[in-house]
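Protocol step 6 of 9: fold each sequence in the batch and record its structure tokens directly after the sequence line. For illustration, a two-sequence batch is reproduced in full.

Sequence one:
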Amino acid sequence: MSEEKNKKPAKTAKPARPAKAPKANADSLPNPVWFAPVMFGFMLLGLAWIVVFYISGAQLPLGSAFPEANIGSWNIAIGFGLLMVGFGMATRWK
């Protein structure tokens, strides 16, 4: 009987904690659904802007047809700017 008094009660086992899922980096997440259409939209809009400027003989868009808003050769910069936005987005596309 003395042995029974000296025995300590067994400790109950603690349930194991579930392993934490690793946090996803912003770089490893997939792109949103709208990303690819917007990217291609910028590329096509820039290309269309330049083509329309050349085909219209600088009359459109905002060419010499609107003397108060004549931006002339800046239309090429606008078109290439739109293209570069699209290509910049393409570097982040997954």
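Sequence two, same batch, same settings:
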Amino acid sequence: MNTRTAGGILLTGALLFSLSHASYASTPIKAEVTKATSSSRQTSSEVNVGGTWSTEKLEVGQSFTVSTVPTEGGAPFKWAASFPFVLNDGTRIGECIANEATLTCKVTEVPETYVDKTDVSGTWWARARLQDAAVGTDEGTITLNGEVARKLIWGDAQGTGTCTNDCTNPVHYEYARPENLKFGWTNDNNTVGWAIKWIVTPGTEYVVKDFDTPLGTSVKCTKSGEWDPATTETIESTRVDANTIKFTAPADSKVCITYPPEQMRVPEGQSSVTNHAEVNSLKLEATTTLRSNGGTDGSGSDKPNPPVTPEPEPSKPSEPTPEPSRPSEPTPEPSKPSNPTPEPSVTPNPEPSKPPTPNPEPSKPSEPTPGPSVTPDPKPSPEPSKPSETPKPSETPKKTEDDPTPSPEKPQENSPKTPVPTSLARTGSDSAPFFIGTGLLTAGLGAFVIRRMAGGKK
């Protein structure tokens, strides 16, 4: 195999390894311990721990672990059993595995109904039993994902942080009370385990029979009020049949106990089971109801980001498009009519000031009148034939027409606004005949003088 092939294989292997881990890589579920109780300070007594868990979204591989800090002799308590990691509606999302003193709840599957759900949260709780390793201590430690989460006072049956039951001494071995009884408990596989305990007289032979389950041959007898290993003796009995044994109680013994090795299954559709036993004709009976050793619940939001969909609602604020109603401001368009405001032809006001200038102009036409008086020069023109020059005087009237007409036109525009135009009223179109008549008269006088001068020369 060449180096390229080997390198490719290694690279492929590394990639597959990373992908396989990436698919399960996840941050731990956020969990809390909210309560912990200890029913007594004797070993085998119950310990209950519970809390909450939550995650933004369920993912395969998420988990949280609840454990304890071991003592020199080992774990102070051990979890009773494993149980499923489920939600309120019974949907199973994983397992809570009890391994001695460690309980790990892990998501192993995400149902389709929860693929899009968010803010998934719920509660959890688990049952444990106090162990011999806790003997001589007053409290234990509960850890969550390796971090100290809570101190538990042994015998704190209420979870208040103070011992309320069996508080005279630190943790001790289980009481060996002198009593005749049969009792049972629930195992992690929903089966029931049994025990038979009875008061004994040292040196007496006892025949023990269980009518419902086979018996083992091991029997323990104690000389004290506790099942202390230092004062407890283990005896091997004689088997009579699968369900029967016999033995002789040792010296100084007070109480003996035996534990049938087989677990009893609860019949389909039932939640409890009853067991019958007999010790030297003493009938013992007990009924045990299945108890859960732990459990979870939880639920999530049906619509992960409903607030995101309402984003269109914020678009409603865009309805401030009514701001375009500001275009309704075109109401100022009526201001266009305000353009008539320029009607305050205030600007023409200065123009009326111009009329005073034209006032002298009309005085100029008076100048031509002396003109004809100059023409009656005593020197008569010898050529009478030049009366054709009469058009020249007509030119002079043109000047009078040109000069006076423009000047009166300007005042005419402004005349209505000033009283001055009253004296110039004749400069308009009505005064035109006057000037024309004056011109004609002047021209006639000129022609008459010329003719007289011509006649004189003759």
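Proceed to step 7 once all outputs are recorded. Observation for sequence two: Residues 3-23, 324-435 have pLDDT under 50 and may be disordered.
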